[in-house]
TrEMBL record:
EC number of the protein: 3.2.2.31
PANTHER family: ADENINE DNA GLYCOSYLASE
Protein name: Adenine DNA glycosylase
Enzyme superclass (EC): hydrolase
Organism of origin: Actinomycetospora aeridis
UniProt cofactor(s): [4Fe-4S] cluster
Highest taxon, organism lineage: Bacteria
Signal sequence coordinates: none
Amino acid sequence: MGTTTSATTAATDGATTLADVLVPWFRAHARDLPWRRPETTAWGVLVSEIMLQQTPVARVEEPWRAWLERWPRPSAMAAAPASDVLRAWGKLGYPRRALRLHAAAQAIAADHDDVVPADVETLESLPGIGTYTARAVAAFAHGQRVPVVDTNVRRVVARAVHGDAEAGAAAARDLADVEVLLPRETTDAATMSAALMELGATVCVARGPRCADCPILDRCAWQHRGRPAWDGPVRKAQTWAGTDRQVRGRLLDVLRGAPGPVTAAALEAAWLTDPGQRARCLDSLLVDGLVEPLADGRFALPGEAGDVG
């Protein structure tokens, strides 16, 4: 793996920094995503960041618009039952994110006057909000000068700064590597964070990078090293068919599609292939708080159990 090029060295080319190139490139070429528009509130940015975790942009745009139309402020969502939130989450996957966002909305409404906090530390204190999401909201919603590091950003830094084909495992240096690339001016720093992310998502992609279209091709350490192949561990592609994730999704589909609690038989019919797997997945949904059991043997989404007479 490349170790001879430091972030500070790679960030500059004489008096020109990577930010001098990437900030105007982003302003000219960035995708027109609704959560990037000036009128988007900090709540809208927070919702987008939660939805975009492990979910492609194309699958998020319409649910995001519907979500903000239905719940334009944290207090609006905070007042909704968790069952409504899970139904609205639909097919976005990883539904625990919906419950975490619901809990965060309740905390923002109750403890922060319905205003999404601006500083990283306060954001991290919200239920279900981790380091990445807190920094993304601070930067993209509030224009703070904080490094924002996701998989795309780590790949760009690995190639452009360290000369490696892949980023490898997350490391303590990641935040420092990105912070040194940020301009001192706050607005440009937030734009640079977005630019690094955009470059990794659209040009410096994992497979088949479009190097000919890269605005920093001439200063990319990976290019200067002759684009050496990655010699570290390779992540295996995730499968879907037959996994516990698929079974959990099938069970939740039954509950989301029903107007109220459902019978055990209805859940059993959702996955006949492996009854043991189905039982295990139902147990995991109960543990995660995504499903609640009723005394009569039926099952419900969170909050619906108390509505049953």
